[in-house]
Write a structure and sequence with these properties.
With 201 residues, the protein is α/β, with parallel strands linked by helices. The chain has six helices and nine strands, in the order H-H-E-E-H-E-H-E-H-E-E-H-E-E-E. It has a single domain, classed as 3-Layer(aba) Sandwich (Rossmann fold), CATH 3.40.50.150. The chain is 25% helix and 30% strand. It binds S-adenosyl-L-homocysteine.
Length: 201
């Protein structure tokens, strides 16, 4: 598999990537390219991430089967489906209502039932179901939104692309005894995270 060849080692992540049918999350006109290692348009100027980056971010989250996960930037629902395969349940927030509906349809076609799509500004998190063992931001953030750090459980991991609108670095924040440690994992390019604690809309 292309992804294993590029250094993703976690067997559970590789198995999840094999089991979730990516073509169901890609618009019909792009389905031929669904298994190439590149991002693809999903409408409204948004993209489904490159499979390799999905795998890397998922591995960095170190998910356990009992984990409760929050994703910001639902997009096609593909990353949420991978998270749902590896964790207990997933809430994925998407700000564009049509995109959120598409994610729900895609997920229902796969039969994955432990992912809930919520429409809203994800930078505020989803306090009703906090705290989360893992939080993943799949849009480019100028900073890690403080409400998301607050909603991270003890021992929790948050992974995000942080930087400018054009280029970001993958950051993993880990909460231990209330303190946050940060580790960096190289350059990535995502569409912008918009709204409060993100870029201006
Ligand atoms: N994870 C997705 C790819 C996400 S693309 C997938 O697997 O397909 C980034 C998404 O973040 C876009 O759909 C965009 O509309 C959404 N987004 C941007 N800012 C947001 C915000 N503040 N809250 C929630 N979603 C946001």
């Amino acid at each position: 598999m292309q992804i294993a060849a590029r250094g993703v080692k976690d067997e559970r992540v590789l198995a999840a990537m094999r089991s979730v049918p990516r073509h169901l999350f890609v618009p019909l006109t792009f389905r031929e390219g669904a298994y190439n290692d590149c991002p693809l348009p999903i409408g409204r100027g948004q993209t489904i991430s490159q499979p390799y980056i999905v795998a890397v971010m998922t591995e960095l989250l170190r998910l356990e089967p009992g984990d409760r996960v929050l994703e910001i930037g639902g997009g096609s629902g593909y990353q949420a489906a991978i998270l749902g395969t590896l964790a207990r349940d997933v809430i994925s927030i998407e700000r564009i209502p049509e995109v959120a509906r598409m994610a729900e349809e895609n997920l229902s076609e796969t039969g994955i039932v432990n992912v809930t799509i919520v429409i809203g500004n994800g930078t505020l998190g989803y306090p009703d179901k906090a705290p989360y063992d893992a939080i993943l931001i799949t849009a480019a953030a100028p900073e890690v939104p403080p409400p998301l750090i607050d909603q991270l459980a003890e021992g929790g991991r948050l992974v995000a692309p942080v930087g400018s609108r054009d280029l970001q670095e993958l950051v993993r924040c880990t909460k231990k005894e209330g303190a946050i440690t940060r580790e960096y994992f190289g350059g990535v390019v995502f569409v912008p995270l918009l709204g409060r604690h993100g870029w201006p809309e």
